[in-house]
Amino acid sequence: MPQRSGIGVLGFGNRVGGLVAQLVASNPQIELVSVCDPAPGSVKAAQAMAPALQVCADPAEMLQNPRVGWVLIGSPNQFHREHASLAMRAGKHVFCEKPLATNLSDCLAIRDVVRETSRSFFFGLVLRYAPLYTRVRALLDEGSIGEIISVEFNETLGFNHGGYIHQDWRRHRAAAGTHMLEKCCHDIDIVNWMVGSRATSVASFGGLRFFTPANRHIADEIGPNPANGRRAFQDWPQSNHDPFTLDKDIVDHQVAIIEFANGVRASFHTNCSAAISERRLLLLGTRGAIRADLNTGTVELQKLGWDEPRIVHRVTSTLADHAGADAQLVVALADWILRSVPPRTGIDHALDSAITCFGIDQALDERRVIEMQPLWKKAGIG
Ligand SMILES: NC(=O)c1ccc[n+]([C@@H]2O[C@H](COP(=O)([O-])OP(=O)(O)OC[C@H]3O[C@@H](n4cnc5c(N)ncnc54)[C@H](O)[C@@H]3O)[C@@H](O)[C@H]2O)c1
Q: What is the pLDDT of residues 31-60, one digit of tens each?
């Protein structure tokens, strides 16, 4: 049997552990060769998949292994710069989970290493692989709503999802970056893709109003989940910390407005304790409108006119795997590793979404409109 393509994983947690399980199960030519993760439980999960794999105390040990051609990075965001840079400098191709890094200088450092080393860099903006968004993009490409004039989009998270974020390492900006960056960089990227332009001005308000000690009684009043006895807001399997503590520095709700270079204007809303969870995109154009919601798997197209029918596309989706996007991403990862097919999402998309988020959070922190040009200039973009 020819030698299999070897992958190494830096940070074998829920996300990349889950992707690798699907990747190796569906591609016998790909072998999980090496893992580096300080958590014994994560290493055990990797060993369950590949009993003979190399377990490394630090990334350098993995990167010396010639059997590792591709490194997949699923560590907390604060480590992405170090892990991606070391791996590419060691000659490995890299898949890095979103967001790119927690601050602009780390993002630019990764971009510089991609340029210097010419390694292939696959960035985990999984929603570009969601069948629902590819359908919306195709409708735009067909000209079905003409030119986009304005956009409304949101990510309102179910209350247990929000509770998970507010108990995890994601609640610390030092580890994760802001909520906008860590969670909503996907949504910003999708709108960048649909609008086909970059933000020129942004403004934002947000804060922490729900996941505070004063609201802990709401969990008591809702009571435990009758199905499994787990406490409200902590129904995700990994949720073992009380999300109503103040040892965190992220927001639990935020709104933003964005003006793009091509004149499109957009508004965004995120909330971490929603009773109605949506990932909805409303695009209003010169000839019609598209409304799409990833959570219901529905795309509606309405042309401007007197008797135009509302065309409803049902794009099958389950929320569990990013509405079908994870399966498509796994196919893309296999194509990338086995057949050198370039990824759909790379360093440029990573930077565009991260920098837009940095501008939005600067606007929130400084309570003023931020002109994006200096940020793009700093990054040498545009
Ligand atoms: N694309 C998506 O939709 C999506 C979804 C979830 C998470 N993510 C991203 O994936 C990454 C991991 O998130 P997760 O939900 O799997 O978190 P997680 O906490 O489940 O996993 C993180 C893993 O990294 C390990 N780790 C911590 N420090 C490390 C270090 N210095 N070196 C190596 N490993 C280290 C932890 O022990 C853990 O096993 C994050 O960047 C997150 O933003 C992306």
A: 999 999 999 999 999 999 999 999 999 999
Q: How far is the CA of 194 from the centre of ligand 1 (A)?
A: 28
The pLDDT, as a whole number, for residue 319 is 64
The Cα–Cα gap between 59 and 77 comes to 15
Determine the residue of 14, 44, 171 to mutate for testing ligand 1's pocket, defined as the one with the most ligand atoms within 8 A of the Cβ atom.
Answer: 14
The answer to whether residue 317 scores a pLDDT higher than 70 is no
CB of 187 sitting under 6 A from ligand 1: no
Per-residue pLDDT of 207-256, as tens digits, reads 999 999 999 999 999 999 999 999 999 999 877 899 999 999 999 999 99
Q: Whose CA is nearest to atom 9 of ligand 1?
A: 97
User: Omega of the bond prior to 99 within 30 degrees of 0, cis?
Assistant: yes
Which is more confidently placed, 238 or 381? 381
Taking each helix axis as running N to C, give the angle between helix 185-195 and helix 347-366, from 0 to 180 degrees, rounded to the nearest 10. Answer: 110
Closest-CA residue, ligand 1 atom 12, reads 74
Q: Which of 115, 121, 126 has the alpha carbon at shortest distance from 94? A: 121
Is 61 a pocket residue for ligand 1 (Cβ < 6 Å)? no
Q: How far is the CA of 313 from the centre of ligand 1 (A)?
A: 34
Domains parsed from the chain with CATH numbers: 5-119 (3.40.50.720), 128-321+345-378 (3.30.360.10)
> How far does CA 70 lie from the centroid of its chain?
20
Select from 157, 17, 180 the least CA-distant residue to 102: 180
* Residue 97 scores a pLDDT above 70: yes
Q: Looking at ligand 1, which atom is closest to the CA of residue 238?
A: 20
Per-residue DSSP letter, 284: E
Distance from residue 282's CA to the centre of ligand 1 (Å): 31
Instruction: Say what the pLDDT of residue 1 is.
Output: 58
Measure 37 CA to ligand 1 centroid, in angstroms: 10
- Measured in Å, residue 200 CA sits from the centre of ligand 1 at 31
